[in-house]
Amino acid sequence: MAIEDLNRIVCESLTKEYASRRQTTKVLSGINLTIEGNEMVLIKGRSGSGKTTLLHLMGGLIRPTSGKVKIGRFTVSELPNHELCTLLSDNIGFIFQNFNLMPTYSIYENIEIALAPKGYDNRETKKIIEPLLEEFGLTEKSSTLPSELSIGQQQKVAVVRTIAKKPSVIFADEPTGSVDPETADEIIQYLKKLRKENRSTIVIATHGSFPEEQADRTILLENGSVRV
Amino acid sequence: MKYIAKELRRHLYRTLGGISGYTLASFFVLIILSISGSNKSGSTGILQNTGTHLVVYIPTDKSSCKSDLVKGAVIAEGMNTLMLDIDLLYTIEKIAGVKDAAPYLRYEMYHDDYEKYISIGGIDTTSLATFTSVCAPSNIVDGRFLSRLDNEILAEEAFTKAHGLTVGDTLKIFNGRKVLTGIVNSGIKPAKADFYATIGNVRYLLQENLQCQAPGFDMNIVLVEVEDPRVQDHVIGEIRSLMHNFSVSTFMCYEPAYKVMNMINKTSSGLSLMIFIFLVLFSAKTQLTAIFERYREIGILKSLGWSDSRISMQIISISVIQATIGLVIGFILGVVVINLLNNQNLMLFDYIEFRFKYSFIPIVFLLSVTGALIASMFPIYRIFRTKAGDIFNRYM
């Protein structure tokens, strides 16, 4: 199987509803889309259009109400927990909109925990993390807590944490939404570099902060459906 | 382990809070155990020997130890009895629940000087069953207890007062001369007599002095001491099954005693169960609070590919480490406080004895760790059931 096939994402009739006692809210409705391996795709839509939910569904962070998500040969939406863990630690990387950094862990430790499931020893972990910190200008901040960093620096840490494990599929939720243009460009360039070197598939959710011309194509999401 | 230590260190106040909770819990459990243990052993210790004495004999309508010289017979509880072989004693000793058994030879004869029937009991002077059913060295009110000399005799205090006898008197009784070496007040005992001598002396006295005719001179009564009122019915049943015409007589106060002992045991078990439930609830509360505080972080770890079992092991380890540290501190604190309360004679506690036993350590440790493990089950169940994205939606 070619690497492009391994990293291909397929959504079939994907629906997600959130039910409370009073009402059921349909967030996504019958999404059908295919993202080819090594493709960089933007999912664009207004706030509340379901972009984050779609990313979480594609990455296996939540289960769909109906429909399927496939990444390569894995049906992510039906994988048992332990297999999903392996997929998340080895193949999938998330860059969250609000960074999701561990508040009481240092920057170094925040990146280290992403590599922990892979079973690297301290020396190997250091060998991976230190060049990345240097590349993103975070070396001096490695022992500080996230709360002591600027929003832009926190965004960079979130990116470094994800790319450190060299995932074959990256889901990025507004990766440049909170940073200045220079940092945004730095992140974009690094994602493109990773795509090229690692042949990763990159799916980016944005409401408009990410430049469309950097992606292969843009999918518009409106009221939980893909606009054709 | 690296991340467990990190977690304990990073959330220092939460860790200290958890440890102090377990410290308080184990401290109070230790105090309660030390009081209930001492109360239980004190109460059951008192009741354990209540009414646990039996006298066993075979009643008959004829005298089985007749003499041509005097008018007398071997008597138990006012009834003529058969003489018994010593082998019966060995058989009874082997019955489960029998603490001790002793031979007893009790003879009554009409005495012209006293113008009444007088009785003499031949006793085994070293047997517990003798002490509890007949008389004991502690019952001496004047003089001393029996030694091995063959002319010694004890008398009941009431008898000596009635007939003006004192220690050192030489009595002409049972066709011989005996020196009164001690006066006893044996209280209400099931097999008491007016005089006591060693069983060897009484056998000799019956055979030689009174020339009684009997198939044997071993004994006419077996005195039995039971381990515990709760097994008394079983022992009585076993003795009766040996021979259908046995008469087994006992103080009936063993029945309320074993009922009270059962109540004390149940109360103690109930208290222990309540302590355990308290510990589990407390641990569950501590664990749940910690998990709710950490829920967001657990979601992050899950999204990074940490397995549910790895996160669960972390939670269990943190819980057990906190419980163990808390337990050690609580124990040290408890032992110090128990010693203080016992030694300083504080007014409030001077009627309560706090008794520390080393056997409490594994009990409280097991309770604490089991509680921590049970308490971890609910958060772990939630971790397995909840997806990372759902955690983000609910807690962020």
How does this model look, in words?
The complex is a heterodimer of chains A (228) and B (396). Chain A is built from seven helices and ten strands. With 228 residues, chain A is an alpha/beta fold. Chain A is globular. The relative contact order of chain A is 0.20. By secondary structure, chain B is α+β, with helices and mostly antiparallel strands. In chain B, 53% of the residues lie in helices and 18% in strands. Chain B has helices at 2-10, 12-48, 86-93, 128-133, 157-163, 199-209, 232-242, 254-303, 308-343, 360-385, 388-395, and strands spanning 53-57, 72-76, 79-80, 98-111, 116-123, 140-143, 152-156, 170-173, 176-184, 195-198, 221-226, 247-250. In chain B, strands 1, 2, 3, 4, 5, 6, 7, 8, 9, 10, 11 and 12 form a twelve-stranded mixed beta sheet that branches. Chains A and B meet through α3 and α4 of A and α1, α8, α9 and α11 of B.
Key features?
heterodimer; A: 228 residues; alpha/beta; Rossmann fold; 6-stranded mixed β-sheet; 4-stranded antiparallel β-sheet; 10 strands; 26% strand; globular; B: 396 residues; alpha+beta; 2 domains; 12-stranded mixed β-sheet; 11 helices; 12 strands; 53% helix; elongated
Can you tell me the CATH class of chain A? Alpha Beta
Shape of chain B: elongated
The name of the CATH superfamily of chain A reads P-loop containing nucleotide triphosphate hydrolases
Shape type of chain A:
globular
Unreliable spans of chain B: none
The rounded Rg of chain A comes to 17 Å
Rg for CA atoms of chain B: 34 Å
Q: What's the N-to-C terminus distance of chain A? A: 30 Å
Strand content of chain B: 15-25%
| Helix and strand element order of chain A | HEEEHEEHEHHHEHEEE
